[in-house]
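sorry to bug you again but im stuck and you know this stuff better than me. below you get a single protein, a line of residues and a line of whole numbers that encode the local backbone shape. mainly i need to know what kind of three dimensional shape the backbone takes. anything you notice is useful, everything is just below:

***
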Amino acid sequence: MNQPPKRRKTTSAASSNLEPPKNPALVTIDINAVEVPELTEQEQRDRLHLERKVERAFFEAGKALAELRDRKLYRSTHRTFEEYCRDRFGHSRQQSNYLIAAAGVYENLTTIGCQNVVDEDLTTIGCQILPTSERQVRPLVPLKLEEQRSCWQEAVQAAGGKVPSGRIVKDVVQRIMERTKAPNPYQIGEVCHIIAKDNPDLKGKGGCWCIVTHVGEFSCTVEAWDGEYTVRIDHLKALNYLETECQQMRQICDRIRRLRENENLEEAARAVLKYLGELKRSHLTAVEEKLLSLIEAEYGQVN
């Protein structure tokens, strides 16, 4: 009986010539270099234009918010700017104020030529760089215009000629304030006039009276007719009232504050409170007292 032929085991030439595995660390991999084309002159101009738009984004936002607020362009849909900002942009009035104030600082810095330029021959480092975010200039807001410029240039130098972070700017501001430190002359309970100057948060408050509620190293927290504000000491002017006069003003301030807390307060009532908050004396006339008492009675806040 014929037996089936035996199968012959095949081996490939490749398998017969296998080399021992190499050390992976010694393996050389050839990679073809891909040449990246240089930007054309037009592309370089486009890049610079777009970069400047990104850097100015917070400035444009602050300028737009200031115009919306000043022209009351929110009035057809919202009663207050604060409500409008919350509903339309999803942030608080304070955030809007930060952007508005930052735009003012940015605009101030551009008046001395602090612009991003390519010219490497400029000798003043601070004038080559502009802020790119609101947080970088927030520490500069309370300063005078000249101080803003000098602090920014010093911060740019501290950052090695680059855009400084908000922390670096804050550190520079604190060092400069320490060098020019002056004692705070105000006391809690003192009555002062507000001097608005260049502080956007105090717009419309110039000449209003206020009560000092907290005394800091370089600033005071004060209560005005429409809320509390933290202001530099050079934004206040002492009225030098007697203690009895200060007490009278504190009582008026408390009465106005309680009325302001009423959400149903009508515009006419608010107008009266604003008028009383801008008085240049420490007492109410008979008519003013009647008006204030009438509003208190209307809203159930009779003393």
About this structure: Residues 43-179 form one domain. The chain has two domains: 43-179, 191-298.
